[in-house]
Each structure stands twice: as structure tokens, then as C-alpha cells.
Amino acid sequence: xxxxxxxxxxxxxxxxxxSLGVWTKCEGLSVEYEVYEYKEGGVNSHVHxxxxxxxxxxxxxxxxVTKETTAVAAWxxxxxxxxxxxxxxxxxxxxxxxxxxAWSFGSVYPVRWTGPTLDIAQNSVATEALELxxxxxxxxxx
Length: 142
Prior knowledge:
With 142 residues, the protein is mainly β. The chain has one domain: Hcp1-like (Pnp Oxidase, Chain A, Roll). The protein has 1 helix and 10 strands, in the order ββββββαββββ. The strands form 2 sheets. Strands 1, 2, 3, 6, 7, 8, 9 and 10 form an 8-stranded antiparallel sheet that branches. A two-stranded antiparallel sheet has the order 4-5. The chain is elongated. The chain starts with 8 loop residues before the first strand and ends with a strand.
């Protein structure tokens, strides 16, 4: 049996048109909701648990440096302080490039970009990482 996850990679598209290329790692696809407990007078059998606000983790993308690294630099050069991009889509692609899952996010903006360490004495793959904050998951696609 082959491991289907071995060929997976992640494509990131901003505002439905600007591709930030293909990434090999994506972390932070999660949401956590606050829970408020309410003790109603006269109801002694249980405590009401009410949903509160959602808290979304930052998305952290990483990959080896490729020609697509310049697309990230060009996008970062366009982003101004306080500016939020409207949408972002993260697609999971199989080894043939077919989309097998996708998530869309709203109010996206970059938090951090880390480029490779440029040291010819190191014998390692040059990598980059991009961290993005967002305002939550969007229903449907872009």
C-alpha cells in the first residue's frame, strides 16, 4: 500500500488571483471557541454552557526556497501597515496537482516572513517561512 500523504503539497492564493506558490508544510488550521458557563437560578441539575468567540491560530507555511519565493517578496512589498487582504485559499494538492481539500480565510495579513540563512558553509536546504493572521474561515470557495 502506498502512503497517499507523501505526495501532498499546499497551494496558496491571495484574493483569488495572486498565487504565493506551492508550500510543503502548513500549520495552524484550527479554531478554538470560548465557552461560558451560566448557572441558572432554580436549575440545580446542570450548568448551561454557551458558545463564545472563536480564536483562530496563525497559519504557518514553509517550504524550500524556489522561484516562487519572489512572488512572496512581491506580495509583501505591496502590503502596507494596517492593510488586510480580503481572502486567501489554501488548497491541498496530491502528487498529480489535483485539489483534494481546501480552506478559505478572510481578513488575512502577513505577520512574519523568514528567509533562508545564507551561509555557504552549511550543507542544508535553504527554506523560507511565512506566517499569516486571519479573521476566520469563510464558507465556500473564493
